[in-house]
Amino acid sequence: MAMTVASPGKGGVYVAKPPPPPPPLPGVQKTYDSYNGQVGASAAARRRRRTAETGEELQEGEALEGIVLVLRAGAAMVAFVGVALVASCHHGDWMEFTRYPEFRYLLGASVAACVYSAAQALRSFRRMRRGSTSPAFLDFAGDQVVAYLLITASAAALPITIRMRSAVINIFTDAMTAAISLGFIAFAALAFSAIISGFRLSAHAY
């Protein structure tokens, strides 16, 4: 039992001093130290786990961004060849692509796909250089719109080309057939790009 010690104060009046605090029990101190160590280890483990998850997400984002870059660059090159094929069809009389609205539509859609895909491929390359791979709604929406233009233009030009080839096969019909095929290929590339962009948007949102 702790005893109160009295000591003389001012004027000879004795003042009671409180007893010193008891020393901590060894078992309690060990338990407290063990708890602190476990808490620190758990926090460090959580930090390491968050760092690892962040690194995996960045690697996955860079991989998907690289795939999208390749798809858009491929769509730009394919669409450019399609533009060159359609624009070169100036052979006089009925072999003028400007006489047919289907072929003019195909040319316009191919030009739009070429410009859009090239610009987006350059944008993706710059984002990868900066280390920023966050998806954007513009990518998802733009890929769908341009892909829709390509598929509708290629589908519109296909029947008239088939009718022409049933009557005659020459450089004009061959060029149009190749341009339509390239339009379908560019559509497939942008469609896959839109799927990846949509997946990245949904994963980023959650």
Structure in words:
With 206 residues, the chain is mainly alpha-helical. The protein has one domain (51-204). It contains 4 helices and 2 strands. It has helices spanning 26-87, 101-130, 137-167, 171-205, and strands spanning 5-8, 14-17. It has a two-stranded antiparallel sheet with strand order 1-2. Helix 1 packs antiparallel against helix 4 (171-205), helix 2 crosses helix 4 (171-205) and helix 3 runs antiparallel to helix 4 (171-205). The longest helix has 62 residues, at 26-87. The chain is rod-shaped and about 115 Å long.
Strand line-up across the major sheet: 1-2
Mean of residue pLDDT values: 79
Count of extended strands: 2
Structural class: mainly alpha
Task: Give the low-confidence spans.
Answer: none
Strand content: under 5%
Order of helices and strands: EEHHHH
Largest sheet: 2 strands, antiparallel
Helical fraction equals: over 70%
- Whole-number count of domains: 1
N-end to C-end Cα span: 62 Å
Determine Rg (CA atoms, Å). Answer: 37 Å
